[in-house]
């Protein structure tokens, strides 16, 4: 691996100052650990995320074609995508998609559904209350908490700006 | 240390036994993916069902352990009651795989935690008890389960995420050995007997890494220090051993270990082997840096290393299971990932 190593091994093995040794080791490990290709990952995420969004657009158009209003069609679409994601999670297919698509499967609403369904499946064995009840949001929890918190904060700012007649 | 010569203590942290205990038998129970790997044909049993007919991953792991214990007793031709003590441990919180797995065997037990180095720790303690005359026959056992480990240390199994190249794949499997007083058992004809010549107990080694997805790099310094200590304590060269076998450093950790040792003029590049690298085919099985977990070194040892020694392909091996001493709490609290490695000197006689 790596022919132009910046950190010589001697600066780890023979370094007496442990803090320095640890710093050198950290850099050395970074240099010697194979990395994922960001370009490849980004392209894959773009493709998979794009396909999911296209499917979403298809559902919106389809529900509108069936006579739903635009808002209702969007809501039906979310429900459909969440359902499909949960179904694919239960069947063990979603993690395989995510392995390939990365953030492309994480960012759309399907990723959120997966992050709720996966713990539900996993912790079912620990009971309805302490298993599913307590642990269903172990991954999605931060998104929910800080999502609600930041909307509250923005709402507050909006309210104050309105009071001050800035907007 | 010349004045220590009358005792079994050698150098700073090693023991050489007076009457090297015999490894009477070993068993290996492997999961499906391990069974499909390069060592698949060597395991005693390959469990196709990841749940092993149980309700949860934890119960499944306990069942693997029970099977490994039953199998090793059967191979040794012994009954539970012949075993003086059982020494075992696993990766799950409070060692539940072990407790629930071996409870029915009714053998007095010492539960230990050494993360993935547990097999080394268990074998070292078992040998110490036997050579010290505190036990005649001791069963050392450990296990790990991919899904149980993912659930405890990372994410629920069905959660979609990507693993970096440095990540390892926890081995599903359980391995056990029975270590006995060599005067009590005659080795089988036509086969070499395997004895534990000595052990080197590892220190906790922390080079400050915090990346739990790069365990190989976190543990390599521990293997480096334990292997150096063993060679220094015994005053031998690395080629004294036909193989120096680390537990689960994987590809990343292995390279680091070899380079660190080279800097101390110890070259193990020709006789080093890593159980995590041997157990999976990384290209075909998509296991990234290699296998890991207590079961990784345990079943590789019992299925492959013991076979090589029995058949005379190797005479001496230094078995160095490596462990990463982290928990999800320590990781979330921003702690480093310290490593540990224990060395067990095994010899075919």
The rough form of chain B would be described as globular
Report the mean per-residue pLDDT of chain A as an integer: 94
The number of distinct β-strands of chain B equals 17
User: What is the general shape of chain A?
Assistant: extended
The share of residues in helices of chain A is: over 70%
CATH architecture of the largest domain in chain B: 3-Layer(aba) Sandwich
Give the radius of gyration of chain A: 24 Å
Q: How many individual helices of chain B?
A: 11
Largest sheet of chain A: none
- Helix/strand order of chain B: EEEHEHEHEHEHEEEHEHEHHEHEEHEE
Molecular structure report:
The complex is a heterodimer of chains A (167) and B (349). Chain A is an all-alpha fold and 167 residues long. Chain A folds into 3 domains: 1-35; 38-135, no CATH class; 137-167. Chain A is 75% helix and 0% strand. Chain B has 349 residues and is of the alpha/beta class. Chain B starts with 8 loop residues before the first strand and ends with a strand. The longest helix of chain B is centred in the N-terminal third of the chain and has 20 residues, at 57-76. Chain B has helices at 32-35, 57-76, 96-102, 118-131, 146-153, 215-234, 250-263, 275-279, 282-285, 294-310, 328-332, and strands spanning 9-10, 14-16, 22-31, 45-47, 85-89, 109-111, 137-144, 169-170, 173-180, 194-200, 243-246, 272-274, 291-292, 316-320, 322-324, 339-341, 343-348. In chain B, strand 1 and strand 2 (14-16) form a beta hairpin. Chain A binds chain B through residues 1, 9-10, 12-14, 21-23, 25-26, 28-29, 32-36, 41, 89-90, 92, 94-95, 97-99, 102, 105-106, 111, 114-115, 117-119, 121-123, 125, 138-139, and chain B through 55-56, 151, 155-166, 207-209, 211, 214, 217, 221, 252, 255-256, 259-260, 262-264.
Write a brief caption for the model.
With 167 residues, chain A is mainly α. Chain A has nine helices and no strands. Chain B has 349 residues and is α/β, with parallel strands linked by helices.
């Amino acid at each position: 691996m790596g022919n132009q190593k910046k950190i010589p091994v001697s600066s780890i093995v023979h370094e007496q100052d442990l803090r320095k040794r640890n710093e050198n080791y950290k850099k050395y490990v970074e240099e010697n650990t194979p990395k994922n290709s960001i370009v490849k990952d980004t392209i894959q995420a773009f493709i998979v995320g794009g396909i999911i969004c296209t499917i979403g657009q298809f559902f919106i158009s389809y529900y509108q074609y069936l006579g739903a209003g635009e808002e209702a069609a969007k809501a039906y679409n979310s429900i459909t995508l969440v359902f499909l994601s949960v179904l694919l999670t239960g069947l063990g297919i979603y993690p395989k998609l995510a392995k390939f698509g990365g953030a492309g499967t994480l960012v759309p609403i399907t990723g959120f559904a997966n992050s709720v369904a996966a713990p539900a499946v996993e912790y079912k064995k620990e009971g309805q209350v302490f298993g599913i009840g307590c642990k269903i949001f172990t991954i999605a929890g931060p998104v929910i908490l800080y999502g609600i918190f930041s909307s509250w904060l923005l709402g507050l700012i909006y309210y104050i700006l309105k009071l001050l007649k800035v907007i | 240390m010349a004045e220590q010569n009358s005792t079994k203590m050698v150098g700073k942290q090693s023991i050489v036994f007076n009457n090297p205990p015999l490894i009477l038998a070993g068993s290996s129970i492997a999961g499906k993916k391990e069974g499909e790997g390069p060592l698949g044909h060597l395991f005693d049993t390959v469990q196709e069902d990841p749940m092993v007919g149980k309700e949860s991953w934890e119960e499944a792991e306990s069942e693997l352990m029970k099977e490994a214990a039953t199998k090793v007793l059967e191979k040794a031709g012994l009954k539970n009651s012949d075993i003086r003590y059982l020494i075992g441990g696993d990766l799950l919180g409070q060692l539940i795989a072990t407790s629930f797995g071996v409870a029915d065997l009714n053998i007095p037990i010492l539960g230990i935690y050494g993360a993935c180095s547990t097999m080394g720790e268990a074998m070292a303690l078992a040998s110490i008890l036997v050579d010290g005359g505190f036990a005649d026959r001791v069963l050392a056992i450990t296990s790990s389960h991919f899904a149980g480990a993912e659930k405890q240390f990372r994410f629920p199994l069905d959660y979609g995420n990507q693993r970096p190249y440095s990540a390892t794949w926890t081995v599903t499997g359980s391995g056990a050995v029975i270590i006995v007083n060599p005067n009590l058992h005659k080795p089988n004809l036509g086969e070499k007997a395997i004895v534990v010549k000595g052990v080197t107990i590892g220190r906790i080694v922390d080079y400050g890494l915090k990346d739990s997805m790069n365990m190989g790099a976190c543990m390599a310094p521990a293997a480096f220090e334990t292997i150096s200590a063993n060679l220094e304590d015994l005053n031998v060269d690395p080629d004294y051993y036909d193989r120096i076998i680390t537990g689960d450093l994987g590809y990343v950790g292995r390279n680091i270990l070899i380079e660190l040792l080279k800097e101390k003029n110890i070259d193990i590049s020709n006789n080093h082997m890593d159980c995590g690298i041997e157990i999976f085919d990384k290209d075909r099985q998509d296991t990234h840096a290699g296998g890991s977990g207590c079961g990784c070194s345990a079943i590789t040892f019992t299925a492959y290393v013991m076979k090589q020694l029995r058949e005379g392909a190797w005479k001496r091996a230094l078995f160095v299971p490596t462990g990463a001493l982290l928990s999800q709490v320590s990781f979330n609290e921003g702690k480093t990932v310290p490593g540990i490695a224990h060395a067990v000197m095994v010899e075919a006689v």
